[in-house]
Design brief:
Blueprint lengths: L1 H26 L2 H16 L3 H6 L7 H9 L8 H9 L3 H7 L6 H4 L9 E8 L2 E8 L5 H4 L1 E8 L2 E9 L5
Antiparallel strand pairs: 1-2, 2-3, 3-4
């Protein structure tokens, strides 16, 4: 009788472990990237700079860097520069969080709804990234900003920020 209980317990543990792994791989896909974009928009809309600085990725390992280079992504700012700029209320802070009409937060609707954002998911050799572009439809040349997110340690985090316009 005890062997039967052990077998049942082992089966339950195996099912739990496999379901956890399935959930983890579900986050490292396009749906997970879109969920991260929704969360990112919420942080920006609320001007939550503290939480924003906490979701900045650690420097990726060499293999991940090689994979990112192979995906031909633009990478303007390193994670440390992003956090330093937010702490010093620098250009990144102003372009994302300020009440200035050209900041990203100023044109994200506070009650949800439509805004011009596109999310592109990419995966290469086990490295998962998402390119999240925000653009204000009224002045797209001024407000075009791109966040590159990386799936790191089981969660999506910001890897870099790119300003894709001529006026910063």
């Amino acid at each position: 009788m005890k062997k039967k209980h052990i077998l049942i317990l082992f089966s339950v543990i195996l099912i739990l472990v496999s379901s956890c792994k399935k959930e983890d791989t579900q986050l490292a896909n396009e749906l997970g990237a879109n969920q991260f974009e929704t969360y990112l928009s919420l942080l920006i809309m609320r001007r939550d700079t503290l939480e924003f600085s906490l979701i900045v990725a650690d420097a990726p390992d060499e293999k991940a860097l090689e994979n990112i280079i192979a995906m031909t992504l633009i990478s303007d700012l390193a994670p440390r520069q992003i956090i330093d700029s937010i702490k010093s209320l620098g250009v990144i802070y102003r372009r994302i969080f300020s009440t200035d009409e050209f900041s990203v937060a100023s044109y994200l609707p506070s009650d949800g709804g439509y805004y011009d954002v596109s999310t592109t998911y990419r995966s290469f050799n086990g490295t998962h990234v998402a390119q999240i572009r925000y653009a204000n439809s009224e002045t797209p040349d001024v407000n075009l900003i791109e966040f590159i997110a990386i799936y790191q340690d089981g969660v999506w985090k910001l890897l870099t920020i790119n300003f894709l316009d001529v006026t910063i």
